C-alpha cells in the first residue's frame, strides 16, 4: 500500500510543482491575478501534501514487507524484486514453451497435410495414367476393328504399285467383291478390285489382296504383303 502511495506521490509532486509555478506566473498578469492566486493556493496545497505523502510513505514502506522497522528493508525489496524477476522468467519460459509446442504442432500439421497432398497428387496421377492407358487401349481396339479405314489404306498401298495410279478407280466398301477381315495383332486383309490403266494405256480390272498392320506406337499403317492380279 505504502509503496503504491510512494509511486503516486512521486508522480503528483512534480506535476503539482509545475502547476504551482504556472499559477505564480499568472499572478503577475492583472487579468489572471485572481484566478492565479486561487490556483496557486490549490497547487501549493497539493505540492505540500504530495511531498509529505512521499516522506510518510517512504518512512512506512517497511510495513508493506511485513517488517517491524526499516531494518532489512533493502533485503526485502531485493528479495521481492528477485521473486518478481523469477516469476517473469517463469512466465516467459512458459510462453516460449507454449510457442514451441504450437510451432511443433503447426509443423506436424503441415507435414501431415503435405503428406496427404502428396498422396492425393500421386493417386490423381495414377488415376489419370490409368485413364490414359484405358483410353489408349479403347482407341487401339477401335482402330483394330476399323475395317473401313483398313479398306481406305489398302487403296493407298495399291496405288503405290500401279503403273498409272492417277487412273485408279476403286469400288465402294459395300461392293459385293470387297472383303475385309481382321487378324491378330491389329492386322487386316483386304480383298477388292481396282480399275487402272496398264503400260499400254488400257483400262483393266485387277483383283488385289493387301495384308497390312496398324502400328499403334507410330500411329501408322504398315504393308506386310500385297498381290495384284
Oligomer state equals single chain
Radius of gyration: 54 Å
Number of helices: 4
Which residue ranges are poorly predicted, with pLDDT under 50 across at least 5 consecutive positions?
A: none
Q: Give the DSSP E fraction (strand runs of 2 or more residues).
A: 15-25%
Q: Topology as H/E string?
A: HHHHEEEE
**Total strand count, please?**
4
Q: Which percent bin holds the helix content?
A: 55-70%
Structural class: alpha+beta
Distance between the termini: 126 Å
* Average residue-wise pLDDT: 85
Please state how the strands of the largest beta sheet are arranged side by side: 1-2-3-4
Biggest pleated sheet: 4 strands, antiparallel
Shape: rod-shaped
Protein model, in words:
With 229 residues, the chain is an alpha+beta fold. Helix content is 61%, strand content 17%. Strands 1-2-3-4 form a four-stranded antiparallel β-sheet, covered by helices on one side. A hairpin with a 5-residue loop joins β2 (187-197) and β3. α1 packs antiparallel against α2.
Would you kindly provide a brief summary of this structure?
With 229 residues, the chain is α+β, with helices and mostly antiparallel strands. The chain has helices at 2-28, 33-59, 73-144, 147-159, and strands spanning 179-183, 187-197, 203-215, 220-228.
Task: Give a topology summary.
Layout: H1 2-28, H2 33-59, H3 73-144, H4 147-159, E1 179-183, E2 187-197, E3 203-215, E4 220-228
Antiparallel strand pairs: 1-2, 2-3, 3-4
Helix pairs in contact: 1-2
Keywords:
4 strands; single chain; four-stranded antiparallel β-sheet; 229 residues; alpha+beta; 17% strand
